[in-house]
Every structure is written in structure tokens, then in C-alpha cells.
Amino acid sequence: MKSFLEEYGLVVVAAIIIGLFIAFATPFGNSIKTYITSTVDNFAASSQSAISGSMNPGNGQTGETQ
């Protein structure tokens, strides 16, 4: 019985720890998803404005080519 617990006890403990990691990762996953989505949206908007030539007028640039 002792060898059974030595072998399979480790598997049970590892399964419990993995389950806890999954349970705690869910709330963090949602916040990370929100952050990544907003970053990609900002990047896409910046890229689109750079492609279309409309620059931010607050930095002294008009977006016109010379």
C-alpha cells in the first residue's frame, strides 16, 4: 500500500495543483484578453491613420507630403 501511495499520490497531488492553476488562471485570462484586444485595436487604428495619411494634428504634423 505504501508503494501505491508513493507512486499514485504524486499523480493525485499534481492533478490537484494543475486544477488549481486552471481555476486561478480564468480571471487573469479575461483581463489579459481585454488588454491584448485593446492593444491590437489601438495598433490597428494607428496603422490605418498612418496608411491614410491622417496624422495627429497635436504633434505639429499635418500629414501632407512635401
Structure description:
The chain is mostly helical. Helices cover 77% and strands 0% of the residues. The termini are far apart.
- Spatial separation of the terminal alpha carbons: 84 Å
Mean pLDDT: 79
Shape: rod-shaped
Please tell me how large the radius of gyration is: 26 Å
Number of strands: 0
List the total number of helices. 1
Portion in helices: over 70%
Report strand %.
Answer: under 5%
Largest sheet features: none
Low-pLDDT sequence parts = none
How do the helices and strands follow one another from N- to C-terminus? H
Task: Determine the structural class based on helices, strands and strand pairing.
Answer: mainly alpha
Question: Gist?
Answer:
This protein has one helix spanning 2-52.
What is the fold's blueprint, element by element?
Blueprint: H1 2-52
Protein traits:
mainly alpha, 0% strand, rod-shaped
